[in-house]
Amino acid sequence: MFDLAISGNNILTRDGLQRAVVLVSHGRIVDVVPALPDNISPDSITDIGNRLLMPGVIDPHVHINEPGRTEWEGFETATHAAIAGGITTLVDMPLNASPVTTTVKAFEQKLVAAGKQLHNNCGFWGGVVPGNEKEIPGLIDKGVLGFKAFLTHSGIDDFPNVTAADLEKVMPLIAESNLPLLVHCELSDDAASPVTDPHSYQQYLASRPTHWEDAAIALMIQLCEKYRCRVHIVHLSAASSIAPLRQAKEKGLPITVETAQHYLYFNAETIADGQTQFKCAPPVRDKANNEQLWEALQQGIIDFVATDHSPAMPALKQLESGNFSKAWGGIASLQLALPVLWTAARKRNIPVTAMAQWLGAAPARLAGLQKGMIAKGYSADFVIWDPEATFKVTESILHHKHKVTPYINETLYGVVEQTYLGGRLVCDRGRLTAPHTGNIILR
Predict the structure, then answer these.
(1) Taking the model in full, what pTM does it have?
(2) How does 242-256 read in b/e, with b if 16+ C-beta sit within 10 Å?
(3) 370-403 pLDDT, tens per residue?
(4) Confidence class of residue 190 from pLDDT cuts 50, 70 and 90?
(5) Bridge partners of 124?
(6) What span, in angstroms and rounded, lies between the C-alpha atoms of 129 and 134?
């Protein structure tokens, strides 16, 4: 018997959009068939008509900030925002929580904090900082999905950046387990332009130049080749690094790349001075650069898109002062991952099928999850949405703890209507219908 059968004219399967029926039992897809079988109970059938059924979105780059900084976000609000936006699985970053997730003890504290607060499924990255190489095996045994390191200051003093020497100690350990090492790639130097006007976006942009990313990515390609450790470049913003990344992939190196929605949606030319809601690191760059990111994404050099949801209290964003030097660097956008990317892709005549690859199948592969595809054996995590419907982003519709985001007042395509987790309807137009049914994901 089947627990659920979803029929519709626009089911986004691995073979593309088609009329189909998705059969679900015990939280997994047991088959995808062209028509309803005879032996199914009418009570189990959901017909979605012309709405689009897609695998639930997977976001592997989210800062939830719990335990220790729940005034910034927290599992309750972050996962509510996520599930309302069709995100069924996310992976939490190891910094911004306090303590940071760089020890087994801290990881255990984070698991307790997540506890029964989750509205969607949540996995965790461990952290790599100078001197914690002895914690790596224990974190692997405890079930982290991989590790994250910074090559420049993270913004959090208790999560310091690593050097090449630090990475040489941990990459062999991580490679043995075939887990990925995620790296924030900026190598700071004294060649960046000084900031004389902290309200100027152009000066902030020049203070984090593309050659910082280029140097860091060159280092990671070199170390990836040396240790054959899976390396993942997070939030690529510098198009100047696309060519060496292409070459690394052509050589067969185990290297993957993500960019973020804000680098594909916004351009530096339209960011006014003092608009600190746009501050992030690396920064949003110019239109010509960002068009090259789009090309690399469509060519497969960039594997997928993740939000890098990094919220903070409004005071930390320095909205009143407009001071980029003092403002917290991070963009809150978790709930908007799908519509932002689709709105920008739609303008470029990119097919809706790309959304399932860039927001599902590819991030699932990074995290080692059998998710992100509507196919037999995969998790029955779904989002039902209308690609042609529009909505205006207002504070009232956002479920993040704080509503500061550069997307306020933007009109977006792609209205998320319902989200299913393990074959169960858990969110209907932003309203939780089965709260706290998310699970902790351990390797």
Answers:
(1) 0.97
(2) beebeebbeeebbbb
(3) 999 999 999 999 999 999 999 999 999 999 999 9
(4) confident
(5) 92
(6) 11
At 150, the amino acid letter reads F
Name the band, by pLDDT with cuts 50, 70 and 90, for residue 43.
Answer: confident
Which of 4, 8, 3 has the alpha carbon at shortest distance from 385? 8
Q: Is residue 423 part of a domain?
A: no
Mention every residue, 6+ apart, whose C-beta is less than 8 A from residue 326.
198, 318
Q: Is residue 301 part of a domain?
A: yes
Residue pair 277/310 in contact (Cβ under 8 Å)? The answer is: no
CATH number at residue 263: 3.20.20.140
CA dist., res. 57 & res. 361, Å (int): 9
Read off the pLDDT of residues 409-419 as tens digits, 9 standing for 90 and up: 999 999 999 99
- Give the pair of three-digit tokens for residue 399: 């479920």
Mean pLDDT of 407-431: 97
Whole-angstrom distance, CA of residue 165 vs CA of residue 186: 16
| SS3 of residue 53 by DSSP | strand
Q: Is the pLDDT of residue 408 over 80?
A: yes
Query: In terms of residue numbers, what domain contains 190?
Result: 54-367
DSSP 47: E
Does residue 431 lie within any of the structural domains? no
9 closest CA partner among 56, 53, 55, 57: 53
Asked whether residue 6 is domain-assigned, the answer is no
CA dihedral angle for residue 163, residue 169, residue 175, residue 181, rounded to 10 degrees = -30
Asked if 266 and 408 count as a contact pair (C-beta separation under 8 A), the reply is no
Average pLDDT, the chain: 96
Strands in 370-410 per DSSP E: 382-392
Of 216, 249, 211, nearest to 230 by C-alpha is 249
User: How far from 319 is each of 261, 280, 324, 382, 394, CA to CA, in Å?
Assistant: 22, 14, 9, 37, 17
User: Which residues have C-beta within 8 Å of that of residue 243, sequence separation ≥ 6?
Assistant: none
pLDDT confidence of 41, banded at 50, 70, 90? confident
Q: Calculate the dihedral angle through the C-alpha atoms of 303, 167, 213, 283, rounding to the nearest 10 degrees.
A: 80
Q: Is the pLDDT of residue 356 over 90?
A: yes
Number of domains making up the chain: 1
